[in-house]
């Protein structure tokens, strides 16, 4: 069974207005309920992503700066 699920954010997971769709958010929460670690990747700076991720109320790792930094 998978232990980690990683997702690109911009242009993939996020809608054009930088929000998660309800079905996507529900699916991510189900993954967390199954103890699967979530990881979100973006080319953006971590300060931009904390605002976005904070709205989701999800415990996740962030890969930012085009892969140059990993944050818990």
Automatic annotation (TrEMBL):
Annotated Pfam families: Hydrolase_3
Required co-factors: Mg(2+)
Keywords (A to Z) from UniProt: Hydrolase, Magnesium, Metal-binding
Alphabetical list of InterPro entries matching this protein: HAD-like_sf, HAD-SF_hydro_IIB, HAD_sf
Annotated signal sequence range: none
Molecular-function GO terms, alphabetical: magnesium ion binding; phosphatase activity
Family: Belongs to the HAD-like hydrolase superfamily. Cof family.
The protein, known as: HMP-PP phosphatase
């Amino acid at each position: 069974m998978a232990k980690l699920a990683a997702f690109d954010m911009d242009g993939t997971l996020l809608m054009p207005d930088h929000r998660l769709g309800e079905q996507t958010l529900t699916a991510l929460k189900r993954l967390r309920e199954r103890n699967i670690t979530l990881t979100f990747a973006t080319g953006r700076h971590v300060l931009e992503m904390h605002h976005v991720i904070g709205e989701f109320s999800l415990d996740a790792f962030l890969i930012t700066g085009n892969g140059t930094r990993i944050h818990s």
